[in-house]
Design brief:
This protein is α+β, with helices and mostly antiparallel strands. It has six helices and six strands; from the N terminus they run H-E-E-E-E-H-E-E-H-H-H-H. It has a six-stranded antiparallel beta sheet. The longest helix is centred in the first third of the chain and has 31 residues.
Length: about 230
């Protein structure tokens, strides 16, 4: 009888543990099947429109459209429309999904309706097993959502800078020095984030003996940050 009681208790403990582990795993499983997307538009900027989609493992996709803003000759070569897969860190992706879940999967209006300067229209969309939700705003009343949007804009800026580096490497190697100076500065103050998203072009620059030594050195510093 004692043996049977012990087995029953062990079975109950095992069942409870399994249920706890399943409960902990459910959000992660849901995130694996879901995505968070930001659709950004501002006709005064280049690119004027872009869409960034991320999954919980850090994989994602970015596409942009230049728009009709006048060409600024002081900016040098402009990247063409971008359409490519990207990778960010799993930690960053986890923060994105956690923020969206905290906002009830974007199930309510998040526009502040405050009289603030136009920063571009942002539409955040969550899609997953729990359903879908979205909100569109210039400036969000939810501080966490506003912060998230700023981080995603910074990731988009990183991807665009990576495309610019690719063009400069092909057409204007001397221009790489100035561009890398800008990326180093922007990475320091947060204007570009998730350098991991442009690792391939940084690896090419770091290993290319025909580019300036300063460019190679900056590329190696940024790669080290991407791995940290």
């Amino acid at each position: 009888m004692k043996s049977m009681a012990w087995r029953a208790q062990a079975l109950a403990r095992g069942t409870t543990l399994a249920l706890v582990l399943l409960a902990l795993a459910l959000p992660a499983l849901a995130d694996e099947a879901g995505s968070v997307e930001m659709d950004y538009s501002n006709p005064g900027l280049t690119p004027a429109h872009w869409v960034l989609r991320l999954h919980a493992d850090g994989s994602g996709h970015f596409r942009s459209e230049r728009g009709n803003a006048p060409v600024d000759p002081t900016q040098g070569f402009e990247p063409a429309n971008i359409d490519r897969d990207i990778q960010v860190s799993e930690e960053f992706a986890a923060r994105v999904f956690a923020t969206v879940h905290q906002a009830r999967n974007l199930s309510s209006d998040c526009e502040s309706h405050l009289k603030v300067a136009f920063q571009g229209w942002k539409k955040l969309t969550y899609s997953g097993p729990e359903g879908t939700g979205s909100c569109r705003f210039n400036y969000s009343k939810d501080k966490q959502i506003q912060s998230l949007s700023e981080s995603l804009v910074a990731v988009a800026s990183t991807v665009v800078e990576g495309a610019r580096l690719e063009i400069l490497l092909e057409h204007d190697r001397l221009g790489l020095d100035k561009e890398m100076d800008f990326i180093m500065e922007a990475a320091g103050d947060g204007r570009v984030q998730q350098i991991l998203a442009i690792r391939p072009i940084l690896e090419r620059l770091a290993d290319d003996p025909e580019v300036m030594e300063r460019v190679r050195k900056h590329a190696k510093v940024l790669l080290a940050r991407a791995q940290g």
